[in-house]
Design goal:
Radius of gyration: 29 Å
Shape: elongated
Largest sheet: 10 strands, mixed
Distance between the termini: 27 Å
Length: about 750
Amino acid sequence: MSRVAVVMGSVLGVVLLLAAAIVGDAAPARAEPVPGRVLVLSLPTLSWVDLHAGDTPHLDALVDQSAIAALSVRDVEPLTDAVDGYATVNAGTRARGVALSGQVMEPDEDFLGTPAADVLHRNTGRRVVDGLMAFAVDAMERRNGGLAYDAEVGALGEALDGAGVPRAVVANADGLGLLRAPIFSRTAGIALMDEEGLVPGGATSPALLEDTPSAPFGVQLSIHAVGVAFDAAWSGGGVVLVEGSDLERADRYRDHVAPQQEQPMRRAALRHTDDLVGDLLVHVDPERDAVLLISPYHPADQVRLTAAALRAPGIQPGLLQSASTRRPGLVTLVDVAPTILDLAGAEAPESMEGRRFERAGDGAATGKERAADLDEIDQAARYRDRMVAPVALAFVALQALLWFAAAFALSRGTRRARRLVSLAALAMLAYLPATYLAGLVPFHDVSTLAYWGFVIGVAAALAIGASLAGARETLDPLLLVLGGVFGLLVVDMLLGAPLQLNTVFGYSPTVGGRFAGMGNLAYGQFAGAALLLCGLLSRRLAGRSAATAVAFAVLLLAIVIDGMPIWGADVGGVLALVPAVGVTAAKLLDHRLKWRSVLLWGSAALAAVAMFAAIDLSRPVDSRTHLGRLVESIGDNGLGALETVVTRKLGANFGVITSSVWTAMVPIALGFVVYLLWRAPGQVRAIRDTIRECLGGLAVVGLLGFALNDSGIAVPGVMLGVVNASLVYLTVRALPAAGSSPEVPA
């Protein structure tokens, strides 16, 4: 075992040192803005397809002058509404609002017959004479205290206040309910409130509205009244948030109009909002002031990406990214608060998980072209989200059919039938890389049938090609296809994971769990293929001096690619893979596993993560991945930060067991093994001997992969898909036809 540890440690150390040199210059260039006034334009439900359509000239001009990105607003729940969106903006981490979050009042307003200041004093004991008051702050604090995100409601307001930066909000999305009862919708006010629910300046009263019979609820923002309130706040400096509340009203009013009236009503609200923005920008000095445009939540019935743009001194037009995404053109809602604080010259508190926006590239030549590119990302993300379930279900269902086909071929089939089943098993494995290659084609612009034709056609072509190329040796076709599964993911990680984004077995920015590196479903394929390759290569090269070295090199490569911050950045994956490598190495070298060995490889997993963390921490703060940020958080907040992450992952793991299609892979794979034990126990022993070096490692990866990744059962589920198809191939090629010899000798 000591020989294995020395070899592994040496190779891993060399690769880590080389990678450390690579990552030294990995941070995108960023010009430092000069802190000044910050106008935050909050335009709810706005997406990039809404702009450059001919009726938003002021917003279009702002986009032309800005660095822009698609904004992922995914919060705790898949659907993000106003209360959750603004709560997350304030906390700088995922947070939830409450039903009464829209009750943000001015002290002298009438609140159902009582002055608002008196209601606040009655409820909280606080006496307020000016500014804005959020009645729901205490309820929000209680709700977020019960969630596993450590969100601190009021963090943004407190940070600005601590830095002496004034803040104000101008917004009113009120409407009228049943019997013309008022609906308070001033949720934008909670974006800048402090921990007591107070905002020093701004306006949210109905004085901001004007009667407009053709507008939703018969009212819209008065450009003049908003301008007066904005001028009063803007003259005091600091951060001023102005909401295009007519967009929120239009979205909320859709249930009251005929379908053909929805879009005209929304376009009218957008035109009025554009006029409002044009009036505000007259008072903004581009040489000194910053303008941050955000859309903090999507339409009520559409999970999609929204718009973000930044025009500030020192920031050239182009694309934005953040350390949360590490992808040009993509930022997240939790990044908004750190960006506001950075623009205002204030420090972000440790409770904020987000990172500031930074310019990451030029993108297309014009704002219109950049907006079109970002809309393409949004369309691809929504198409991917629609296709995830059917593609995963098809994979699992085909695995079951493959099982039955193998059983039929074993009991009644000829050599030809078994070869057809073995070809189907190879195609089942090739199905996985085919889905990633499909990401190179804009299938959201064509029919779904074309997508299926591409995936099935590529899978069949790869299977046939591998069968022809490896026709001389029984194991070679399987080695070639497993090498394709593993090798494609290696190359993808080295190139920055372009095939992971918006592919069905990758990840989506609308889901928002991961934006770069190795996704959980990819990891299940990657680890399963790596371990099977290791076992099969050691058998294929048996008797050659380099057999063990080649097999072990595959596993070392897998650890480095999966764990390196600039490549896979997969903490849970490394923690699962290193012990699996230890178990596999013991088999390769004919060492007996002992409890001491288990402790050694568990320690090696922690050491590997520590080395990757050290590399990540050596990079600039705004370029660090979630691993570096977790270590920072533990250093600042103790082990409670780690407990929060572990609790959240375990909750997510067990929450999806009964609802995930991948759960079905467990009985399918185990059922096939039970069938073989009944039907052909001798051949089971032959297959076991063929892959015996990697069986223990596969079990370890499956168990730890489930426990340490927040996709839970999906990790061992997709890994079992790789294993099941490989077992079918080995079974139908190992069992002889009548009177002949096995193709894979025991």
